[in-house]
User: Fold these one by one.
Assistant:
Number 1:
Amino acid sequence: MGRLICALILVSSSAWAVIETYEFSSPDLASRYHLLSQELRCPKCQNQNIADSNAPIARDLRVVLYEQLEAGQTDAEILDFMVARYGQFVRYRPEVDRQTALLWWSPLLLLVLGGLGVARHFRKKEHYPDQRLTAAEQEQVDRLLEDRIP
């Protein structure tokens, strides 16, 4: 029964796939189309690229991408057009600039801050000498422990 359900899920998931065919004037344009459609994020779906999304906006972006490729636009020109229209969010890997610097540099910044925090923690421990009990204190602890044990 479990295998039947898994098989049905796998079969039905292929029905959700985006199937569009475009007639490209060259195989190079087709490969560029596939690369760029993987690079561009669907503005509605947010976690899907336009190649995988069934949203109407993603369908429109695929058409625009196809038209721009056939018009002879370069990859950079197409990406610039999409960013100008939808913002840096439309790219999965936005360029490093003033607006995205924190996005790109925050992992390194957090790693450095974490390393500094760990170093500070261990350095603090070194400033405290090993505190041993005096003979009188040890005798008092032993006496208290003997009193508690029946």
Number 2:
Amino acid sequence: MIISLEGKITFRAERFLILEANHIGYKVFVGPETLRKIPQNQETVKIFTSAYQREDAAELYGFLTLAELHLFEALNGVSGVGPRTSLAVLGVAPLDMLKRAIGAGETSYLTKVSGIGRKVAEKIILELREKMGAVTEKGEGLQQEEDALDALRSLGYSPREAREALARTPVEVEGVEKRIKAALMILGKTK
């Protein structure tokens, strides 16, 4: 099994990239967040991969960190959740927020993904909750993150812009208002 590839990016598309390693080009499906994190001018990159075999295709899915790979494989191990859906789930929110949401039993993060309804979201939570560190009630940090996300969306930012800004906000910044201000400063620099 191929666990990682290091090489030159020869082509980028919306859902995949072609990575050339040892004169062989590999088509690696990646999420939009992974593509965004790899600078356009970066020639070589190391990607951790997960191979998926079907009757009609063999596919590679790539991630910049082992933590992303492990969550992808855990999601993909849930019956009824395929690799493309698992990849889409990883694009919904930052990794730590997704883990906290699953641990807290928050289906709202998962149902944002096309193809995941309430029943599938509950199944994911049931199967992965213990692995993500189950909590008995919704964590305060998770609620603050949701409140900040809602506030940024109400100010006209897209859910993706809001999530990315909050993900780049330092963890030490606590409290909804402070997180919103820090995220607004980040959003102001990117425009």
Number 3:
Amino acid sequence: MKTSELYETDFYAWTIEQAQLLEAGKLQELDIVNLVEEIVSLGKQQRQELRNRLGVLIGHLLKWQYQEHRRSNSWKATLREQRRRIQGHLKENPSLKSYLPEAVTEAYEDGIYLATQETYLPETTFPPENPYSIDQILDPNFFPDHL
């Protein structure tokens, strides 16, 4: 079976085969087109992981700020856990730091969505623009007060 056909029928087997070909130095036998696609996809996944975690973090910051009476240890734990995981993700992928401003902007919309779904507050409750700096978002000691 051609390596490009294996890509379509058994992705896992294809990855094993590509790794073996690379290790053996058989570069001419590699499925270059699909390898490029997968490498690009891996990079996109790293960016998406950062955006997703930021969205959850921002959503919980909004919940913390706009529902003082419902603050709980589980919310605080979620804030701490997302910050810890974001820091770990950035440590493993330091080049993503330059993407942080864009990622925060994109994640803010997801954060509002999460906050409206979990608080039942109208979307208009929350600022149309992200009120938190990147430093505040990532600061393990930052817990916003109600405005």
Number 4:
Amino acid sequence: MQSILSKYDKAVIEKASKIEMLIFDVDGVLTDGKIIYTNSGDEIKAFNVKDGQIIRFLKEASIRVGVITGRSSALVERRCIELKLDFFHQGAKDKWAVIEGELGSLSAQKVSYIGDDIIDLKALVNSGLGAVPADGMSYVKDHADIITLAKGGEGVVREVADLILASQGKMESIIKQKLG
């Protein structure tokens, strides 16, 4: 899995190798951040199937996966249920407080958090591996361990998940399993 890991320095790979929980924001991470309303008041969001595809493999690797978002949306709830996430929290104003509630006996250094905006800063800096999409706010990127190549809604979660799985030596077996 050298190809996945080649773009990261040793410190990032070391942090990723310890991750047991991956948590991410929705708007600007799982989506491109656009919120589209129809004339009838319905909300439309686009999710990237690549992000959803890797979640099963994270869970099979005993990595808990969850969402914490500042907004509330029936579409987000539907997507989180569809992905069979371990947890999801909507309407969160203090995302780090929500994470602390999910930690249990897990240390913060074993959590990776992906966020793109000012509301994500505390969660980003207190987590063991903080990631920001390529199009995240510049002052948020300043506090990240990694800035993904992908923009929000274009496979950000997948990129971080691949890093975590590869750094833990699990990606190769997933690929072999799929090759048959």
